Amino acid sequence: MKILNFGSLNIDNVYTVEEFVRPGETVTAKSHTVFAGGKGLNQSIAAARAGAEVIHGGAIGPDGGFLASLLEEAGADAGHLLRLDIPTGHTVIEVDAGGQNRILVWGGANRLTHAYLEDVFACGSDGDIVLLQNETSLTDSIIRRAHGLGFRVVFNPSPFPVNPDALPLDDVDMFIVNESEAALLANAAPGTAPATLLEHLHLRFPSADLVVTAGERGTIALLGGAEYVQEAFPVKIVDTTGAGDTFCGYFLAAACAHKSPQAALCEASAAAALAVSRAGAAPSIPQADEVRTFLKKRMFLQQIE
Ligand code: RIB
């Protein structure tokens, strides 16, 4: 089983600040670093580092060649990337003293075409996973077509769609969401407990698998009709950017390797913990042996084997 990931590739401009800039305020950043990013690229790198076979479907401009190289170095197939004559997508990210982030994204070259989608779909076969986020064009077409072709559709609706009801969400086989996306998807109030969000989402999407991540409060999931809880591993938070993507890639790679749901959640949580303890998005994604060492130190290794 392989993963076809239709996902964004961005150049992240990361500015560290003591506190997020408030409306009307001008603040001097403490540092500025350019990192590789994009929810799609991060998830492909995480899944590939975790051992999955990944084909990345996405688009870059003339300035994005290093993103393609990074994907290849991680073991993902970047040979199908669309190369456009417009600048690669980019972000402006503020990271505060607590490691939390705010992200402003400009899509740039993250524009896919219907013909391109077909080229990438042709690389997969029945039962493979089609993974997507909401940072490229054609989200609706990717979901509908992937479902029609018999792929298993995994949707990480981030950034959250402006009009989710316009998407064919009943064609989604698995949602991987953080708690704020879960609340929006379930039409629940912000701050609703993750377990309640899971119930709401299950009522709305009764046949879908559901994974709700809640940062330091862990993860709750409904997979194959059974509920799972995974605690987060406490670490010193440096930068949360890309941690959700790391979780997503590691979780799906473990699923592709037919690991148990609990093992997949445990491994993904460990990978995300390592990611939040480092700066940047793509550069913070751990290698598989780092995840194993992390779990071994905490006597959790037996849970993923
Ligand atoms: O999820 C983190 C990612 O979101 C960043 O790498 C940034 O590019 C935005 O897409």
Please describe what this structure looks like.
This protein is of the alpha/beta class and 305 residues long. It is 33% helix and 22% strand. It has helices at 39-49, 65-74, 114-121, 139-148, 179-185, 194-204, 243-256, 261-276, 288-297, 301-304, and strands at 3-6, 10-16, 31-37, 54-57, 59-60, 82-83, 89-95, 101-106, 129-132, 152-155, 174-178, 209-213, 219-223, 226-230. Strands 4-1-9-10-11-12-13-14 form an eight-stranded mixed sheet, with helices on both faces. It has a four-stranded mixed sheet with strand order 3-2-7-8. The protein has a two-stranded parallel sheet with strand order 5-6. A hairpin with a 5-residue loop joins strand 7 (89-95) and strand 8. Helix 1 (39-49) runs parallel beside helix 2 (65-74), helix 5 (179-185) packs parallel to helix 6 (194-204) and helix 7 packs antiparallel against helix 8 (261-276). The chain is globular, with a radius of gyration of 18 Å. The two termini are 19 Å apart. The mean pLDDT is 96. The structure holds alpha-D-ribofuranose (RIB).
Task: Summarize this structure as a short list of keywords or feature phrases.
single chain, binds alpha-D-ribofuranose, eight-stranded mixed β-sheet, about 300 residues, alpha/beta, 10 helices, four-stranded mixed β-sheet, globular
Q: What's the count of strands?
A: 14
Q: Proportion of β residues?
A: 15-25%
Distance between the termini: 19 Å
Give the fraction of residues assigned to helices.
Answer: 25-40%
User: Rg to the nearest angstrom?
Assistant: 18 Å
- The tally of helices reads 10
Mean pLDDT: 96
Unreliable sequence segments: none
What structural class results from the helix and strand content? Answer: alpha/beta
User: Major sheet: size, sense and barrel closure?
Assistant: 8 strands, mixed
